[in-house]
Amino acid sequence: MSEILLVLFAGVAAGALNSVGGGGTFVALPALVASGLSPVTANASSTIALVPGAVASGWVYRRELTPLGATPTPALTMISVLGGGLGAGLLLALPAASFDAAVPWLLAFATVLLAFGRHLSKALSSSRGRPLSMGSRTVLIGQFVLALYGGYFGGAVGIMMLALWSVGLGLDAAVSNPMRVVQVAAIYLSATALFLVASDALSTPLLLTAMLIGAVTGGFTGAHLARRLPARVLRSIILTTAVTMTVLYFLRG
User: Which one of 145, 164, 185, 245 is CB 3.0 to 4.6 Å from 58, fit for a cystine?
Assistant: First the structure.
C-alpha cells in the first residue's frame, strides 16, 4: 500500500509538472524504480501513465495553441507521433546506459537555451540585420530529433522544445507552452502504443493504475492553474523546473 501511495502522489506531481513546465518524468521514473521496477520498465510505465494527463492538459489548452511560425500544426504533430514511436522502439532495442550518461548534459544545454534563448535570438537577429526565424523544414527536423529523444527517454523533452522554439523562432515560453503540451502528448501517445505491446509495463497493473490516476488529476488541475498564472510567473516556474531537474540529474549520476 505504501508503494501504491508513493506512486499515486508521484503521478499527481508529474502530471502537474508536465502541464505547467515539463519535467514530470523525473518525478515518475524514480518513484517507479523505488517500487521495484527495472529502469526500462519504469520508463515505459511512466510514459504510459502520463499519457492521459498529457491529453487532459492538451484538451484544456486546445483553444490557445500558437502556430510555430509558418510550420503547419498538423505536420508538426505527425512528426512528433513518428519520432515518439521510433524513439520507443530504440528504448526497447538498445542498451540505455550510454544515452543515460548524456542526458544531464542535454538538460543543461536545454536549460541554458531556455534561460537565454530569447536574448540569443535577438542578438543573432541584430547581427544579421533581420529577425531570426527557422524555416518550416528546420523546425520539423528539430522536432523529429526531440520526438525521437522523447520516445526513448522523455525527460524534459518539453523543456527542450521550448528552448529550441525560443532560440529559433524567438517565441516566449509562456506563449508556446500550450503547443509544448500538445506535442508532448503526441510523442507519448505513439510511444505508449508500442510500450503496451512490447514492454513489461502491464506486469504491474496496480502501480500503473495508481500513477495513471495521479497523472490525470495533476495534469488537469495543473493546466487550469497554468492558464491563470501571469506570463512572468509561468516563465519562472518553467525555468526553475528546468534548473532543478538538471541539477538533480547531475547529482543522480
Answer: 185
